Amino acid sequence: MAESYRLRFSPSSTSTFNSRSSSSPHFKLLNFPSSPHKLSYLYTQSKTPLQASSQNPFTFTQHHEHPNSPEAANPHDPHAKSQPLSKNHIWVNPRSSRAKHLRKKKSLSSISASSFSSLLRLAKSLDSCSQQDVSKILNSLGGKIVEPDAVFVLDNMLNPEIALIVLKYFQQKIKPQKHVVLYNVTLKLFREVKDFKGAEKLFDEMIQRGVKPSIVTFSTMISCAATCSLPHKAVEWFENMPSFECEPDDNICSTMIYAYARVGNAYKALSLYDRAKTEKWHVDKVAFSALIKMHGKAGNYDGCLNVYNDMKFFGTKPNLVTYNSVLYAMGRARRAWQAKVIYEEMVSNGISPNWPTYAALLQAYCRGRFKEDALSVYKEMKEKGMDMNVVLYNMLLAMCADVGYTDKAVEIFEDMKSSAACRPDSFTFSSLIDMYSCIGKVSEAEETLNEMIDNGIQPNIFVLTSLVRCYGKAKRIDDAVKILNQFSGLGIVPDDRFCDTLLNIMIQTPKEELVKLTDCVEKANPKLSSVVRCLLEEQKGDVVDFRREACELFNSVDAESKKSFCNSLIDLCVNLNKPDRACDLLDLGLRLGIYTDIQSRSQTMWYLHLKRLSLGAALTALCFWINDLSKALESGEDLPPLLGIDTGLGKHKFADKGLVSVFESHLRELNAPFHEATHKAGWFFTTNEAVKLWLQSRCSTKIVAA
């Protein structure tokens, strides 16, 4: 006698029945010889366990009886105990996308336990058989094959090649109107094995045979494309649905949020996402991750945080992938503080970080210059035995160089050289040489250069720039010229950054030694050389010619270098005691839009903004402003109650001191009535009455440009 397998129903509560889940609290699976995840179409052992109620086609009545149960008692017995309706029915939401399929699937419940066992064994036999033996095995089903048996066999198969042969066999035995169900369950197999091309080929065959695809067909194809990381194919299938008279349901639209986000179609993705929030769809975690990545690539980092916070609205807990996505976005945004908060939330939620988590954190902390946090992550990775790649090492080295952690940078560099996972590259050596050049350690920079060459890595323009700066900072002009001549033989082409470095070396070089650098400037940039020679050769020349040469120079360099060039040239003019040329350059910078918002005016206050200006440019801008104030006073224009100068708190990258300390002494020398604000760092203020008296007391000044 065949062994009996039973599904027991617990009438303690009711819920929407999930045909794909064997872990539902209302069903207990006993003694099944196979894993339960294949019970796609098996509801119970009895012949009619779930019958549609005549009052509600979406309410299925439970008829499982026990000899001692009240249901087994005589219905006409007045002493029999009646049971509440809620314990005899499973209510299914008629708006659910599964509701219409349950009516079709309830006929599949006619599979008995013995049939289940034999059909499961048959499916396994088919998976392992040869193509020639398929018909022989299927003939054991007899001449009449019902749809539930065919669907069950196909749904439990794992071999797609054999499944195609089985499908054709069943098509010959089952009515054509049922073929779409057979195709759909076979397509699901191709989805499980991630064979999208095979699924497309099967769909083409389906259309050629005149079988009309259903919404389940498209749902399977779209989810197959998503599973195979082919979001563009998912979009293609979704947009082809109307041509087959199929309207997508909420589940498909929710899946398309992920697909449209992955292909970068922000308009479509966000339109569906807004609908999901309004209509309260279920949105999968991968869709949230895809939206965060989409916003991150577009530079919309606030959008990343909004999607992350929306997960709370949906009641969805972020998983590791989602956390990594938002951490990476915060790293790109240089929002180290937000990355830190999100990481702490992740750990408090019991999610352990993995390698991508630490990589995203390092990027965020290094870019945000959270030096202690970055070094803590580095230490934790080493303690956990996680390998650092060359990108992470280089980020740490660059951060240490920027914040002045020289000893720590050397320690990390030595650890990198001993690592089996990666070796120092060009960027590694360049970062170290740049670090040494910023602090003027010539011997260390030279040793690193030699090690770089010994490792077979050729120096690049970045290394040349750093070395020249290092020699210039150490006042070793001859060595700077020598290394430049050596590198020119390697075919290294000077760029704008290198030329800017040459200008800054000239600013730090005594006037009598500047001639040593003129040939270097000529080789690096002839247009820059023309402007520099006009300043050095003390030719009175025409102002128009000088401005024309400078204008041609500024138009020839990239946008990021224009302000730096102009700052450096003005500094050189100040050092050479040529204030007129400095004023010409500042005026040209204002006209060309190189400098913007240096001055601003309101009814209550006039400002002079000197942030991001070099010392010479800032002093020249002050001259301009004082001149404008004098003209305003002479013309009878009313000055505002308050006047202010904003120097900022930082300093120019090539300066030894910040503007605050320099301007404090300079304003004192001018006897100007500006005083440093105690409540607002980096600001100097005065009143209109005080500045009027000061301007009137100095009818002529050497600082004010004529």
UniProtKB/TrEMBL annotation:
- Where do the PPR repeat units fall? 179-213, 214-248, 284-318, 319-353, 354-388, 389-419, 425-459, 460-494
Q: Where is this region: Disordered?
A: 1-25, 52-106
Alphabetized SUPFAM superfamilies for the sequence: TPR-like
| Keyword vocabulary terms for this entry | Repeat
Superkingdom:
Eukaryota
Q: Provide ranges: composition bias, Basic and acidic residues.
A: 62-80
Q: Where is the composition biased (Low complexity)?
A: 8-25
Q: Please verify whether the record's keywords include Magnesium.
A: no
Which GO terms of the cellular component aspect does the record hold? chloroplast stroma
**Quick check: keyword DNA repair in the entry?**
no
**What are the Basic residues biased-composition ranges?**
97-106
Q: What range(s) does the Smr domain occupy?
A: 605-695
Q: Give the signal sequence positions.
A: none
Task: From the UniProt record, give one GO term of the biological process aspect.
Answer: positive regulation of translation
- Bias-annotated ranges (Polar residues): 52-61
Query: What's a single GO MF annotation on this record?
Result: mRNA binding
Q: Which PROSITE patterns match?
A: PPR
What family is this protein classified in?
Belongs to the PPR family. P subfamily.
Put simply, this protein is called Pentatricopeptide repeat-containing protein At4g16390, chloroplastic-like
Q: Which organism is it from?
A: Arachis duranensis (Wild peanut)
Highest classification ranks of the organism: Eukaryota, Viridiplantae, Streptophyta, Embryophyta, Tracheophyta
